[in-house]
TrEMBL record:
Domain Serine hydrolase span(s) in chain numbering: 18-212
Coiled-coil region list: none
Name of this protein: Serine hydrolase domain-containing protein
Record-linked InterPro entries: AB_hydrolase_fold, FSH-like_dom
Pfam families: FSH1
TM segment ranges: none
Species the sequence originates in: Arachis hypogaea
Length: 214
């Protein structure tokens, strides 16, 4: 068999580089490895089209994880809040941590988030557009994949001060929203989708989890 020409090899590398690079933000008191395991159940026809990067949150879990019986530790959380989600702690530190990772390991085209990671990811495009977050990140976030997410400032969750205007305008980037029919955050996920222009909403029969796609 003939060796590939230099031009063909260059084209192959170019095609590989053209995969959208996606930063994946896990759920509350889980980890990047756990989210990776859940997303890896998706069909290869989906995952092979994306360059998925899974990041652990900055803060170790400050309490019991709901997934302890299923997945091994360590577990992490992006930020903390009081019981009624009216006050937030370490949110600014979380933003700086994500920003530094995106600068050092990017460029990233989009974000994928589950649960607390989806709440964070959903707020970032609006905050970036306002110059409040990701100021050192040259690339604008081009799309979002949000699983069991919610909106800061919505029915259930108050907004950290820095994110108070994240949804002051409809978010005008492509977005996919996975909403579970038995998810305890179904209403919040639906409300989040309404904050975007032309969202693609995919309903699945399960609860608060990353659904299988096939």
């Amino acid at each position: 068999m003939e060796k590939k020409s230099h031009q063909c090899r260059m084209m192959d590398r170019h095609q590989t580089q053209k995969k959208p690079r996606v930063l994946c933000l896990h759920g509350f008191r889980t980890s990047g490895e756990i989210l990776n395991k859940l997303v890896s159940r998706w069909p290869q026809s989906v995952t092979q089209k994306l360059d998925l990067v899974f990041l652990d949150a900055k803060f170790p879990a400050q309490g019991k994880s709901d997934v302890e019986a299923i997945f091994d530790p360590p577990y992490f959380e992006w930020f903390q809040a009081n019981q009624d989600f009216s006050e937030y702690m370490n949110f600014e530190e979380c933003l700086a941590y994500v920003e530094d990772f995106m600068v050092e390991n990017g460029p990233f085209d989009g974000l994928l988030g589950f649960s607390q990671g989806a709440i964070l990811a959903a707020a970032l495009p609006g905050m970036q557009a306002q110059g409040i977050a990701l100021g050192k990140v040259k690339n604008k976030i081009k799309f979002l994949i949000l699983i069991s997410g919610a909106k800061f400032g919505g029915n259930k969750f108050g907004a950290p001060k820095l994110a108070s205007n994240a949804f002051s305008k409809p978010i005008d980037i492509p977005s996919i929203h996975f909403i579970g029919e038995t998810d305890f955050m179904k209403q919040e996920s639906t409300e989040l989708g309404e904050a975007f222009l032309d969202p693609v909403v995919i309903h699945h029969p399960r609860g608060h989890t990353v659904p299988r796609l096939g």
